[in-house]
Design a protein that fits this description.
The structure is a single chain. The chain has three helices and twelve strands, in the order H-E-E-H-H-E-E-E-E-E-E-E-E-E-E. The chain is α+β, with helices and mostly antiparallel strands. The protein has two domains: 77 residues, no CATH class; 96 residues, Umud Fragment, subunit A (Ribbon). It is elongated and about 75 Å long. Keywords: DNA-binding, Hydrolase, Membrane, Protease, Transcription, Transcription regulation, Transmembrane, Transmembrane helix.
């Protein structure tokens, strides 16, 4: 009986050493998956850490959501923010992995088109997939945050330094009378800064 007890204690010690060794050499990790609209976070940490992983994952998802909806947010700043959250929970040796349908360290956003200014390329109510990036080229369709118009989806027509000229694909001009006065309506054209760009439309 004594030998069995010793064996049992030995087995427990070996298991603890194996578990501890795994996290010592492999490390703790956070895996975040984004599909453009939904976010999931999964943490792999030592069972002895005492960390509330549910709360940790919720904070990571909230930060990721904020990053997706911020024009200046990118994969680097998101990873740094996640590491700060982990450190606040007492985790200082965490590897962060970001994944999405666009690939590793790529952040997607689903954007819903409103209006007909991009017709016939895009239709009112259509959903498009946007890749968060500042690497834009003339001819790209981008989503931007305009001081004058709010969130808009337009085509890049010119790039001058850090300024980007956006135009509508729909070139039709309409007229309407309001209180006897004739008004011309046409698609938006506007300049925005490169930092006002959310990203490039990659699927529609």
């Amino acid at each position: 009986m004594a030998n069995k007890g010793v064996l049992a204690i030995g087995a427990v010690v070996i298991i603890l050493l194996l578990v501890g060794g795994y996290f010592l050499f492999i490390g703790e990790s956070v895996n975040v998956y984004m599909d453009g609209e939904n976010i999931t976070a999964q943490t792999t940490i030592s069972p002895f850490s005492g960390v509330d992983t549910g709360k940790l994952n919720d904070e990571i998802c909230e930060l990721t959501f904020q990053n997706m909806n911020n024009t200046t947010g990118d994969a680097k700043s998101l990873k740094q923010g996640i590491l700060r959250i982990c450190l606040a929970h007492g985790l200082d040796n965490v590897k962060v992995h970001l994944n999405s349908p666009l690939g590793e360290d790529e952040i997607p956003i689903l954007f819903h088109v409103e209006g007909t200014s991009m017709y016939p390329t895009l239709n009112d109510g259509q959903t498009v997939l946007v890749e968060k990036t500042k690497d834009i080229k003339v001819g790209n369709i981008v989503v931007a945050d305009s001081d004058e118009y709010g969130n808009i989806i337009k085509r890049v027509s010119q790039i001058k330094g850090d300024q980007v000229y956006l135009t509508s694909d729909n070139t039709n001009v309409d007229y309407e009378y309001i209180n006897g006065t004739r008004y011309e309506t046409k698609g938006i054209t506007t300049w925005v800064g490169i930092n006002d760009i959310y990203g490039v439309v990659v699927q529609y």
